[in-house]
## 1
Amino acid sequence: MGWGADMLSIKNLKFGHGSHIVVAENTAFGGGIYGVIGPSGSGKSTFLNTLAGFHDCQSGYAIFEDGDLLTQRVEDRPIAMLFQSNNLFPHLTIFRNVALAMTSRRWLTKFQQQQVSNALDRVGLSGFENRKPGELSGGQQSRAALARVLLQKKPILLLDEPFAALGPAMRNEMLDLVKEIAKIDNQIVLLVTHSPDDALRICDQTIFVSNKRLWLAGDTKIALQNIPSEMQDYFG
């Protein structure tokens, strides 16, 4: 599976809302891309938000580089997250939107300017620096949002269906870009998706979430060929 990277270990983790508390099986995630699949409301996005620090867990640990992520401030966690909404500011240029990953100051050092330019180049947006989000296509906006996340240079990347609104061709293009960049940067990537095709396209392994349980099902192709009983209704 995957490529070399530090391990993210989940231990005794319980998270959720109200009476819907999900128990995550103890497991470790190495470098690679993991699809997070399950019915709506099962806890997929809550799992990512818990790791990122946007939602409190009931108990448990998430260990990375000998530290528990769940005790760290959001800004100190080694995590970058891309949401369903691109969260681009419409009044700012693409260059300024991406630069916000480093600073909110108006003036950037030459080094910072070069870092932003490099991030835009990696996602194929060189030459679009001075355009506003409204002047870009949906796919280009997704690329800009991805560039901003990449500029944070975090070893763990959480993707909460960021390309769901794109057409099939553009979504595949973005997924392939994520796979290429994640491999180069040796990242651990967790991708929430409702699409088995998306998972088969780029995910090394698959995580299932169902019936208040989260577990690592293993190799994506094998996992999706051998659907467990608790996931049968979801896949149909």
## 2
Amino acid sequence: MRIKLIIEYDGTNYVGWQKQKNGRSVQEEIESSIRQILKQKVDIFVAGRTDSGVHALNQVAHFDIDRRLELKKFTSSLNFFLHKSENTISIISSSKVNSDFHSRFSAKSRTYLYKILNRKSPSPILNKRSWLIPYSLNIESLRTAKAFLEGQHDFNSFRSSQCQAKNSIRKIDKIKIIKKKHEIHFSFTAKSFLHNQVRIIVGSLVNVGRGYWRERKILEILEKKSRACAGPTAPAEGLYLEKVRY
């Protein structure tokens, strides 16, 4: 029996999704809670492995179990054990899926959201859940510059030096930039992303928004295919895995 989980979490206090020896991970906390319920070890597979400090609104994962589950009760029990261990993780739903469903390989697209709080005063609500930028950002310049990044390109300039992908060519289907009072939301949709791609793009666009770079600079950075040419990596705390489409 294959079970699909929809998961929401605040990634502030975790080393990321993937299990690591240097701290608590989202994967380990969920697997540990499932182990307490089912009294057996399970391995969870996920749509997108988020880094330390990155959040998720609708992360998708799956695991296999050799018995039938009462899913409503299972979801409630799983949330109980996660809460008992003082986790900032919630299981939104669990459902049975076909055996050929794979949370990672069946995904047609992923959407990441990046939040900027664009005001001088910090927010106790959005602290660790957004990037505070106390300087004015030109929204129209941001929107003009982001257009150079839509479509298929070699994004070698916009990936971290630790990125293990063999190929840096990716296709970004759509980038949206929305102003909501003091917040600026960047939405990126693609089938897959390079390591730190969204955060490096946001850091580079902020340089445009502040007037440090002209809009066309983004195209020039793409063409140079060098990480050294791009802007800073935006903080992890503003990034959310928003949606996975199948």
